[in-house]
Amino acid sequence: MMKSWLSLAAAAVFVLAAGTASAQDTLKIGTEGAYPPYNATDASGKLVGFEIDLANALCERVQMKCEIVQQDWDGMIPALLNKRFDGIMAGMSVTEERLKQIAFSKPYSTTPAWFVGAKDGLLKDAKTLDDIKAALKGKSVGVQRSTIHQNFLEQKIPDIDVRLYDTQDDLNLDLQNGRIDAGLADSLGWKDFLASDAGKGFTHFGPGLTGKDDPIFGLGVGIGLRKEDTALKDKLDKALDAMNADGSLAKLSVKWFGFDTSIK
């Protein structure tokens, strides 16, 4: 997750009660709660996920109190720039497009994007990205709106019908029910669906796509910040460096993803 500055919002967000981050002892943290395992809502309504744990760990290291609230995805970058929030943690990839609008902390996670479809569907023989493009020509492909994945489909695979969804769960439901032919999302965004009974007839096809394949996919997931908030960026960068050095960031990754997604 992997989301676009035009109407941004994965998402987990650092917010100050008032004033600037450096002048406060509380960071208000919002999360979409709909992008597992980065951020999600459990059966009791509690916000859980990698970024929830990471946010709390970072707050502890910078000696600030976390207050966590839920926030819809759309409109997050505008809200950040309007000083409603002081930072965004949302499975948000660091991309050239977003860097025109905001700053980022050092990246703390990176995972590839996957095309997913029915095991016996139109992608069953697709091995390469070119195979996928040929198989999807004229077909419908689902993607969460305002993401780097939407940008990739619209800019690099023009001969398809792009269907936009507010959440990954909505995309999964339409894929399961045959209303779209395939979907594109971060590999971790697919994890719960592919492991579920509903997703047992589906799998991913072709290569995992990263910033090495196309700059649209960015440099990894980081904390979105206003460009002027350099003191907050410095604090968070140092905290992330410390968590990388002592292994606690890798430990959180393994807890939520099953493997280490941290960037050394």
From TrEMBL:
Cellular component, GO annotation: cell envelope
Chain ranges of the Solute-binding protein family 3/N-terminal domain: 26-260
Predominant location: other
Signal peptide feature range: 1-23
Subcellular location, record wording: Cell envelope
One Pfam family hit: SBP_bac_3
Keywords, alphabetical: Signal
Top-level taxon of origin: Bacteria
Family: Belongs to the bacterial solute-binding protein 3 family.
Entry protein name: Solute-binding protein family 3/N-terminal domain-containing protein
Organism: Inquilinus limosus
